[in-house]
Design a protein that fits this description.
By secondary structure, this protein is mainly α. It has nine helices and no strands. It folds into two domains: 120 residues, Up-down Bundle (Four Helix Bundle (Hemerythrin (Met), subunit A)), CATH 1.20.120; 147 residues, no CATH class.
């Protein structure tokens, strides 16, 4: 219990660093000044450093809900820093950091709901009969990153499209990428995430078939992940089969992200007795 409490404190440090970076980015939009951006990046880098150190020291199991959320938050934090530097004139952090903060907060809450899953080692997880479980986890994590990037691009696309319909002056609102670039980002995220998710599901199916009780097929984790795959299949058909407008595809991408959160929060059937 003491170890779990210490990990919870580390979660607060990580989350508060990202929160400070987000608030400083907001301040930069309200009162433009170079110092706000530099201070925001300092807190963002501090949050990522603490985040990375936590993952290296505590090695949260990817099969545990809190571990998968924290790993996804770490990748998106990298995405936030890259985008903030690469797209300096855009309000990149305003959209990415809230997702990172929410994922860290959810991970912190779920940490106390997964006792007994903290004695974990990546080296052990990659050995023996756990190897394919590791492959499955990595594939799903990478697919989750694609889903999250598609979600962020979709949210920005929907906001930008609404602005254009309402003829809002660009200099009076939060600066964002063009609709074309956002649509391209969403399309690339979909094209990358779908094969990764498909491969992850195939590996997971083989694991369920050969090493786990048949009742696990009806678990929330399996059903929500399968539902996410079906949503992506529909997205691909709508995009390349019937060429549905990008605005509708963006809305469906938001739904896909909601399913992803359900899948990540749900208990993993592979974690029982095998996550250690």
């Amino acid at each position: 219990m003491t170890g779990t409490l210490i990990q919870g404190i580390h979660h607060y440090c990580i989350g508060l660093s990202y929160l400070c970076a987000f608030l400083l980015e907001l301040a930069r939009l309200l009162w433009p000044a170079k110092g706000w951006r530099i201070a925001g990046l300092v807190f963002g880098v501090a949050g990522l450093f603490a985040h990375t150190a936590y993952l290296l020291v505590n090695q949260p199991p990817p099969s545990a809900p809190y571990g998968s959320l924290l790993l996804l938050a770490w990748v998106l934090a990298l995405f936030y820093l890259y985008g903030t530097v690469h797209h300096a004139k855009q309000a990149w952090a305003i959209f990415v950091l809230p997702v990172v903060i929410v994922l860290v907060a959810m991970s912190r809450v779920l940490l106390f709901a997964t006792p007994g899953q903290n004695d974990f080692s990546f080296a052990r997880w990659l050995a023996g009969d756990r190897f394919w479980g590791a492959v499955h986890g990595v594939l799903i994590l990478l697919a989750s990153v694609g889903v999250s990037v598609g979600f962020l691009a979709s949210v920005m696309y929907l906001i930008q499209a609404r602005r254009l319909r309402n003829k809002v002056a660009p200099d009076s609102v939060v600066p964002m990428l063009s609709l074309e670039r956002l649509e391209t980002m969403n399309r690339r995220a979909l094209n990358v995430a779908f094969p990764l998710l498909t491969a992850g599901l195939l590996v997971g199916t083989l694991l369920l078939k050969h090493g786990y009780d048949i009742d696990n097929w009806l678990s929330l984790k399996v059903l929500s992940t399968a539902g996410l795959w079906l949503v992506f299949l529909v997205l691909l058909y709508l995009r390349y089969g019937v060429h549905v407008p990008a605005r509708r595809l963006a809305a469906l991408s938001v739904v896909a992200f909601g399913l992803l959160l359900v899948a990540l929060v749900a208990s993993h059937p592979f974690a029982t007795g095998g996550a250690q």
